[in-house]
Design a protein that fits this description.
single chain; about 130 residues; mainly alpha; two-stranded antiparallel sheet; 2 helices; 2 strands; about 50% helix
C-alpha cells in the first residue's frame, strides 16, 4: 500500500557553532530523509608534474656512462695483458734456470761415468809398446 506524500517544510533547527546543520529531503514517493549535509569531497590538488628530461641530456648521460665502461674495460684488459706477460716471462726464466742447472750438473758431475767407453790413448800406446817389446 503506497503512502501518501507528505508535503511539509522541515523545521528550522538553530545551528550551533561547530555542529553541522541538519537537512531534510522529501523523496518523490513522499518519504522524508533527514540527515547532515555533506559537502562534496574536494580532490587534492595534483602535485606539480616534474619537468620532462630532454632527450639530449639522456643521450649525453648514457654516452658518458658508456665511455666510462669502455675506459674501465680497457684498463682491465691492459692489466690482464701485463699480468699475462709477466707470467710468461717468469715461465721462460724458470725453464732457463732448470735447463741451465741440468746442463751444469752434466758438466760438473764426476767425469768417469758418462755412458760411453773412454780410452786413454797414451796408456794404450804404452801398453802396446811394452807388450810388443
Amino acid at each position: 500500500m503506497p503512502l501518501a506524500p507528505v508535503q511539509h517544510a522541515a523545521p528550522l533547527v538553530p545551528v550551533q557553532p561547530g555542529i553541522p546543520a541538519v537537512a531534510s529531503v522529501v523523496l518523490p514517493d513522499g518519504r522524508v530523509v533527514t540527515g547532515y549535509a555533506i559537502s562534496p569531497v574536494q580532490p587534492e590538488p595534483l602535485a606539480a608534474k616534474p619537468a620532462a628530461v630532454s632527450r639530449t641530456a639522456v643521450n649525453v648521460a648514457l654516452g658518458g656512462v658508456g665511455f666510462l665502461a669502455v675506459c674501465g674495460g680497457l684498463l682491465l684488459l691492459t692489466s690482464f695483458i701485463a699480468a699475462l706477460t709477466a707470467f710468461i716471462t717468469q715461465l721462460i726464466t724458470l725453464a732457463a734456470v732448470v735447463f741451465g742447472g741440468w746442463i751444469a750438473v752434466q758438466i760438473f758431475s764426476a767425469g768417469g761415468h758418462r755412458g760411453g767407453t773412454t780410452v786413454n790413448i797414451r796408456k794404450a800406446v804404452i801398453k802396446r809398446n811394452h807388450f810388443h817389446s
